[in-house]
Inverse folding.
């Protein structure tokens, strides 16, 4: 088939043109499929977001699209055509593919009609300068992509300013994490730091650092949040917060529990904390 004659290193022959691809062995498709693996996401500095609405939101928020992929079902859809035009205007590539190809790229049986490949964006810790009643969530070695995605989504919902990933964490740009964020990955800035970097940065931070700990002595509802920036520090799913991170916190909060469970799920605990911290700031009529 003449659409499959491209060499791996040549990429798209003519950037900015719509290209039709139907074969799973096409090198461009292979590159896109490789984005399911962290090593290749990092090499390409890219990640995949699924769904037309997400791609439109991402473009509106100024994210850089590298490639727009849509299935035949999207052909003639005016929203898809608009997104394709925007992609081309920004120098991105547009691929029209079979549903089978989208399913292979996103590793799903019932894939979305549209998929966008975006440039990864990670803020450096030094760029974070909390002010007012800003809230940030710092996650110690978060492991589960569903938890991370859910936390990003929840952080977005409460108007938190960003996520700080401490140490070796699951990738915020994996298919599973991005999916769980439901688009909030584009709204909430993510920062990565080693534990040492975080502890150094912390010395220059004059707001409140609230850690959460199963041995925390403070009922999370008794803390005065709201008049200064807050960094909420959450522990790893298995091990909780290590002592050196816990001792760097101004307060160690606990959510009282009844029943048999020893602890709450990390994303749930983060949600409970965030809604308490933002209690005074969130109003029914301030949402969208
Ligand atoms: N086995 C771990 C431990 O001993 O800490 C359980 C960790 S828990 C599943 C994951 C994280 O959620 C904790 O490190 C803490 O940040 C938060 N968390 C869960 N339940 C909590 C509670 N009742 N109070 C405060 N934080 C809690």
């Amino acid at each position: 088939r003449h659409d499959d004659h491209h060499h791996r290193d040549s990429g798209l022959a003519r950037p900015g043109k719509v290209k039709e691809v139907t074969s799973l062995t096409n090198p461009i498709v292979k590159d896109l499929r490789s984005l399911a693996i962290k090593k290749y996401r990092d090499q390409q500095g890219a990640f995949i977001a699924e769904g037309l609405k997400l791609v439109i939101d991402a473009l509106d928020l100024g994210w850089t699209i590298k490639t727009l992929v849509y299935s035949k079902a999207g052909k003639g859809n005016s929203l898809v055509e608009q997104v394709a035009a925007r992609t081309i205007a920004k120098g991105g590539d547009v691929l029209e593919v079979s549903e089978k190809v989208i399913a292979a790229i996103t590793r799903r049986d019932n894939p979305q009609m549209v998929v966008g490949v975006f440039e990864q964006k990670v803020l450096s810790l030094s760029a974070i300068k909390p002010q007012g009643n800003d809230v940030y969530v710092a996650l110690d070695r978060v492991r589960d992509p569903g938890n991370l995605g859910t936390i990003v989504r929840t952080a977005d919902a409460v108007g938190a300013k960003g996520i700080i990933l401490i140490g070796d964490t699951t990738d915020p740009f994996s298919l599973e994490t991005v999916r769980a964020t439901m688009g909030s990955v584009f709204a909430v800035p993510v920062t990565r730091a080693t534990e040492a970097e975080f502890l150094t940065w912390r010395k220059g931070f004059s707001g409140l650092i609230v850690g959460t700990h199963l041995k925390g002595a403070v009922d999370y509802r008794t803390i005065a949040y709201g008049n200064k920036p807050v960094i909420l520090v959450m522990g790893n799913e298995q091990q909780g917060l290590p002592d050196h991170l816990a001792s760097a916190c101004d307060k160690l909060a606990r959510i009282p529990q009844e029943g048999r469970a020893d602890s709450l799920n990390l994303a749930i605990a983060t949600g409970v904390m965030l809604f308490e911290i933002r209690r005074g700031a969130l109003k029914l009529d301030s949402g969208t």
Summary: Residues 212, 214, 216, 234-235, 237-238, 240-241, 254-255, 257, 263-264, 266, 269 surround S-adenosylmethionine (CB under 6 Å).
